[in-house]
Design a protein that fits this description.
The complex is a heterodimer.
Chain A lengths: L2 H6 L2 H7 L4 H13 L1 H20 L10 H17 L3 H68 L3 E8 L8 E6 L4 E5 L10 E9 L4 E7 L10 E5 L6 E8 L11 E6 L3
Antiparallel strand pairs in A: 1-2, 1-8, 2-3, 3-6, 4-5, 4-7, 7-8
Chain B lengths: L2 H9 L3 H23 L2 H17 L11 H18 L1 H4 L9 H12 L8 H4 L5 H12 L4 H8 L3 H20 L1
Classes of the chains: A alpha+beta, B mainly alpha.
């Protein structure tokens, strides 16, 4: 290395000024260690800059302020002693975190609880309304039964037992006839369920000669729980008969499908 | 004690080494800061802070930062420039004219009480205006070569050579 040329380049002056890169600084430090002339040049340049900068210092100089510097260092280090308490602050931080986690978990739990309660409440409301409907139904059905009972017990009622005929000897029915109100209640409990497309038809009969008059159909036989049907009967009936007819009923009874028959006792 | 040894002890937080280094460089560092902030009290305050900072970051010094003095010089300039750029300082509206450090040196000449200070007059003997400018920018204000070249409107290569010849003059004046 041509140290003389290197020194003459003026780079060492910039090195002392502190405006070179760290890489350049490292290079120069290495050269300085290797070449004493470079090391000496650096020291000479630094001496000149030291003389210049020292001359620029405030008149009172800086030496008297060493105590202040030490005090500032001590003051800056003092908080470090206090920072031995970080455990305390850490504790409160931990407690804070724990509390917030607990709160979050608690909130979540309460939220789910609330949800469950809500759906429970919904279910209860549904059950309630279902129960209310049932009670309502029961009331209605009770009223019907009572009405039916009072009707049947009416003193004007004439009871006619309708016995089973050849088609189905086991079948039976009862007719409750209120002559004054021209109404007949047919209790068809003893009839088998009609097959699809067929319906029971009730006939008022005159016996001499045999004249059947349709009183009506036992509609919705299967779904009617009480199996009691109210029909109008303005006729002077001498007997009642029930036949199985095609849906919609017939003009005249199909006597081959006569299920029950009963004569009104006079 | 050799400087290298002193600096190494300082890096290990040796208070005695720190005090020694302070006595060696405090005036220089304060001089640089004073030249930038132009207020004795503020300069003293920043100067103290710079040494506190150096102590707190002593282990961060290594040879990649240059000479120990150069490292301190950089900390000092940065602190002083931060102060100048701060809101409170801008109110004073003082400019950073390059002839300022010369003014300081000349002002101090008559009343200089410090015995070991080299005579200012002799230090600046025959120093041309363009030398004062370039030394002020590179050493007192920390301009890079490129910034100095732009400021002085000279080729970047000239910065290095001109600076060398200017420093050489001062070295010659010291030797006298």
């Amino acid at each position: 290395m041509d140290t003389e040329k290197y020194i003459a380049s003026g780079i060492l002056e910039l090195y002392v000024a502190g405006i070179l890169s760290e890489v350049e600084n490292l290079d120069i430090a290495r050269y300085a260690a290797e070449y004493p002339e470079i090391q000496n040049e650096i020291k000479a340049i630094e001496a000149a800059v030291l003389a210049l900068t020292k001359a620029a210092a405030p008149k009172e100089g800086a030496q008297i302020h060493l105590a202040k510097v030490k005090a500032k260092i001590a003051a800056a280090e003092a908080p470090k002693v206090i920072t031995l308490q970080p455990e305390k602050t850490n504790w409160s931080a931990y407690i804070g975190w724990a509390a917030s986690i607990l709160l979050a978990v608690g909130l979540f739990w309460m939220y789910t609880q609330n949800d469950t309660l809500k759906s429970n409440l919904d279910n209860s409301t549904q059950v309630n309304s279902a129960l209310e409907e049932k009670i309502e139904e029961a009331k209605t059905s009770l009223e019907k039964t009572e009405e039916l009972l009072s009707t049947i017990r009416d003193k004007n009622i004439q009871v006619v037992a309708l016995g089973g005929q050849a088609v189905d000897p086991n079948s039976y029915a009862k007719a409750y006839w209120n002559k004054s109100e021209q109404k007949v209640f047919i209790d068809a409990q003893g009839l088998p369920e009609p097959p699809d497309g067929m319906v029971y038809q009730v006939w008022s009969l005159k016996l001499n000669p045999l004249t059947p008059t349709s009183m009506g159909l036992l509609e919705d036989f299967i779904t009617d729980d009480t199996k009691v049907f109210a029909l109008n009967n303005p006729n002077e009936s001498e007997a009642f008969g029930i036949t199985l007819e095609p849906a919609g009923g017939s003009e005249t009874p199909n006597l081959e499908q006569l299920y029950t028959l009963g004569v009104v006792s006079s | 004690m050799e400087l290298e040894e002193l600096v190494e002890k300082f890096r290990m937080k040796d208070a005695k080494a720190f005090e020694k280094l302070y006595s060696m460089y405090a005036d220089n560092i304060c001089g640089v800061i004073f030249n930038i902030v132009k207020n004795t009290d503020i300069a003293q305050e920043i100067c103290q802070d710079v040494f506190v900072k150096a102590w707190n970051n002593s282990e961060s010094y290594n040879i990649s930062k240059g000479r120990f003095f150069t490292w301190m010089l950089n900390i000092a300039r940065n602190a002083a420039i931060d102060e100048v750029r701060s809101k409170s300082h801008k109110n004073s509206k003082q400019n950073l004219s390059s002839d300022f450090f010369v003014n300081i040196l000349e002002d101090k000449n008559d009343l200089n009480a410090q015995v070991d200070t080299i005579g200012i007059k002799s230090l600046l003997t025959n120093l041309k205006e363009k030398c004062v400018q370039i030394i002020d920018l590179l050493y007192f204000k920390g301009y890079t070569q490129k910034e100095a070249a732009e400021e002085l409107e000279i080729p970047i290569g000239t910065v290095k050579t001109r600076n060398r010849s200017c420093i050489a003059q001062i070295r010659g004046n010291i030797a006298i």
